[in-house]
Amino acid sequence: MIVGIHQPNYLPYLGFFDKMLKSDVFIIYDDAQFNKSDFQHRNRIKIFNGSKWLTVPVSKKHIPINEIKIKNDFLIKGIKWNDDHFNQIYSNYSKSACFEKYINGLKDIYENEYELLVDLNIELIRFMMDSFSIKKEIILSSEFGFNTTSSTKIVDLVKAVGGDTYLSGPTGKNYMDLNVFSNSEINVVFQTFVHPQYKQQYMGFLPNMSSIDALLNGYRFDYFE
């Protein structure tokens, strides 16, 4: 059984869902350490002259992701951050193929106020799973209460759900201790993901945007099947 594990990123890109669909069990690594340089509180959308970062204002501390709090009083050009994010999505995708189909669902999420970053991110992940018709159970790593770290914790999580194979991201070979996996008789395979091209708003194609870019532009996930 193949187990995929990934941090709960904000508005994840298509590769996140590629890993999910290639896994039998998908674990959200919500008690990993927060990394302010990663995609846990930010991602990009396509705009008329390139791309734009949407960044959730958070208290940047060296603590687990599921303890990171959102600064809900933070203003961007005089308006609340969540209203700004929704307005950016609205204005840049209002002419996209599936805008009308999905914009109200996004609006409902952005109108809520979330205390914790992880709750916002998982709500958006579930919204995109439903919108892309991805039917996978997701499990939170924090539910197991493991105190181990790094490769040992990944092995513990895979074994806890009865897995025998770990699906790693392509960069995992740069930091994982593969001996820990082999000693525990856990196979490791590395994700291969080639970003598809589809019709985007504005001229040119930019890969690796948030997957809402693909969703609102009407891209479907047939290439995963």
Structure report:
The chain has 225 residues and is of the alpha/beta class. The protein has one domain. It is 32% helix and 16% strand. It has helices at 14-21, 81-93, 99-111, 117-131, 150-160, 178-183, 211-216; strands spanning 2-6, 25-28, 42-47, 50-55, 75-76, 79-80, 138-140, 165-168, 187-190. The chain has a five-stranded parallel sheet, sandwiched between helices. Helix 1 links the parallel strand 1 (2-6) and strand 2. Helix 2 packs antiparallel against helix 3 and helix 3 packs antiparallel against helix 4. This is WbqC-like protein family protein. It comes from Methanolobus vulcani. Pfam families: WbqC. InterPro entries: WbqC.
How large a portion of the residues is in β-strands, by DSSP E? 15-25%
The tally of strands reads 9
Number of domains: 1
Give the CA-CA distance, first to last residue: 18 Å
Biggest sheet strand line-up: 7-2-1-8-9
Major β-sheet, in short? 5 strands, parallel
Layout: helices, strands, pairs:
Layout: E1 2-6, H1 14-21, E2 25-28, E3 42-47, E4 50-55, E5 75-76, E6 79-80, H2 81-93, H3 99-111, H4 117-131, E7 138-140, H5 150-160, E8 165-168, H6 178-183, E9 187-190, H7 211-216
Parallel strand pairs: 1-2, 1-8, 2-7, 8-9
Antiparallel strand pairs: 3-4, 5-6
Helix pairs in contact: 2-3, 3-4
Brief account:
The protein has 225 residues and is of the alpha/beta class. It has one domain (2-224). It has seven helices and nine strands.
